[in-house]
Amino acid sequence: MENRDWVYSEKVKDHFLNPRNFLFGDESKFKYDAVGTVGNPICGDQMKMFIKVKNDKIVDLKWKTYGCASAIASTSALSELAKGKTLDEALKIDAKMIDDYLGNLPKHKFHCSVLGHDALREAIKNYREK
Amino acid sequence: MYPMVYLDYAATAPILPEVLEKMHHAENTFFANASALHTPGHLALNEIENTRTLLAELINADPSEIIFTSGASESNNTVIRTFEGHEIETSPLEHHSIIESAKIYRGKKLPKLYSYMLANNEIGEILDLSKIAKKAHREGAFIHSDLTQVLGKLPIDVKKLDLDYATFSAHKIGGPIGVGALYVKKDAPFKPLIIGGNQENKRRGSTYNTVGIIGFGEALKYIKKHQTWKKYDQDVRKLRDELANRILKEIKGSSLNTDIKPGKSLPNILNVSFEAAEGESIELYLDAEGIIVSTGSACASGDIRPSHVIMAKTNDAEVAHSSIRFSFSLDTTKQDIDKVMEVLPGIIDRLQKISTIKMRSK
After folding, report:
1. Which residues of A are catalytic?
2. Average of per-residue pLDDT across A4-22
3. What is the ipTM of this complex?
4. Domains of chain A by residue range
5. Selecting from 2.60.120.260, 3.90.1010.10, 3.30.540.10, 3.40.190.80, what CATH number does the domain A10-128 have?
6. Distance of CA B5 to the CA centre of its chain
7. Mean of the pLDDT values across residues B233-253?
8. Would you call A44 and B287 a contact, using CB atoms and an 8 Å cutoff?
9. What is the model's pTM?
10. Would you place residue A5 in the very low, low, confident or very high pLDDT band (cuts 50, 70, 90)?
């Protein structure tokens, strides 16, 4: 299967095929401080982001999704970008940064690629409201 | 082509080698405009008429009742537009080229048009046309059927089916993309869609697509010679049912959207949903393993709505978003099924483990 064009770029493919920071199976296995959920399975995509926070920093994060390839790849990329950042820094991550990091997702996939950071923002909001 | 297990034949089938060879030959031999009076023009027209006769024989029609088009969508649009301003009733399982054009053109005038496919492209369901045809003709209405998926898969007799119009496509049977046909029963109402030419007996303007029509003819010869519908019924059905049964047995949360009982569906289509696993991801994880399928998930089509066909059957968006269609051909082998089952259970298991949706089935 070498040397052939895939639907997306090599970087997207890598993150899709080897996603970082997946939360497999039971959620309770990961000791998180806050969780953010966005989307809806009826619309075909849902994202859940779990964060562990220490001294205002995201020390670890994991995610689950019912979503498409773009959602998986971009959330995998986001999880790498966000780890180790302060909450304020993490909030500054936007769709363009993820897009640049991955080397451009198809335009019509933009909606799927923002799911991850919407879920992250929701998780940070929930953490701060705790 | 790289090695792959291609199971998306209902979307399009690769061109048959004999079709390709014939078209190559035709490019050099029958290049002349088939409407021209000169000898090369006549020779080209003869070839076109051969295909027309062949299709007519295969579906039990008269050659004069066949119009060549650019494909099934044009054939469908042409029939629907013929009934502009009239009542138009379609099944919920129709292709978008019928549903969307009917939305634009339907009105209140009579006679009414019924448009019901004989077999659906996404789930393979076979509809009971005889009831609809009887009802239509009792009311003085007309009936059209999109037979795009049926050609070569089931025997076709437009008289027995009692149809006034029927749609066909070349590229689903190993012919070229860009060629289709429309059966219009003698004396049935007809309004050309493309105006400005005497081609097709003034029923469709535009220079004849000679080479494409010749390719269509060669593909028709193939299905006639091999009586492909018999092979689909015996060999392909066996493989399809094997895949269905293995999926149900080996993959938790799987359910069939295709009724595999004989007579209920085309033998070459299998549509399955996998609980809590999203269709586009399944399709692309399979693609990465060299297994080519399609999905009814919204994300795949760039639409926000999932498959209208699976929605019509289940009214469950999650089932539609999680659906995968496997479609087979006479080239599909037992090894292909084994390869699918080598990787599919792992892909589904992983997607279910990372899913935000909790599994209902254990």
Report:
1. 43, 112
2. 83
3. 0.92
4. 10-128
5. 3.90.1010.10
6. 20
7. 98
8. no
9. 0.95
10. low
